[in-house]
Design brief:
With 147 residues, this protein is α/β, with parallel strands linked by helices. The protein is 37% helix and 18% strand. The chain has a five-stranded parallel sheet with strand order 2-1-3-4-5, sandwiched between helices. It is globular and about 40 Å long.
């Protein structure tokens, strides 16, 4: 059974309450439940985690991501400046799909650059909670190709 890791970065635990005009009212728990249902439907083992700590995100990538068939990663604000997370993505040799709820290219200029994207297989952004479902299908396709 293929294994998928879903890793959510800083402040995503506040989804549903935080800047609802940007991120909507869907909670992180609801996103994880939807992904868990998709995984069960497609015979994929899933591990979901969230951390506000850069070091913990790196540790999870090392521990869980390196032993997975694919990773869905929303690095949150670390997207724009964490070379350490970028290096962890590159270092685990596991395909990573970077995901964002909002269109980072339509927001403040400092959000237009992702230092993680060059290390990822691809990036999906701007579709709200549906971004995660799109990321799941991208990951599923990658896992099928690599099996």
């Amino acid at each position: 059974m293929p294994k998928l890791v879903v890793l959510h970065g800083p402040n995503l635990n506040l989804l549903g309450n935080r800047e609802t005009d940007v991120y909507g009212r869907v909670t992180l728990e609801e996103i994880n439940q939807n992904l868990t249902r998709l995984a069960a439907k497609h015979g994929v083992e899933i591990f979901c985690a969230q951390s506000n700590s850069e070091g913990e995100i790196i540790d999870i990538l090392h521990r869980e991501g390196a032993n997975a068939d694919c990773v869905i990663l929303n690095p949150g604000a670390y997207t724009h400046y964490s070379i350490a997370i970028r290096d962890a993505v590159k270092g685990i040799h596991t395909p990573v799909v970077e995901v964002h709820l909002s269109n980072i290219y339509a927001r403040e200029e400092f959000r237009h650059v992702s230092v993680v994207a060059p290390a990822a297989k691809g990036q999906i952004s701007g579709f709200g909670p549906f971004s995660y479902q799109m990321a799941f299908y991208a990951a599923w396709h990658i896992m099928k190709e690599n099996s």
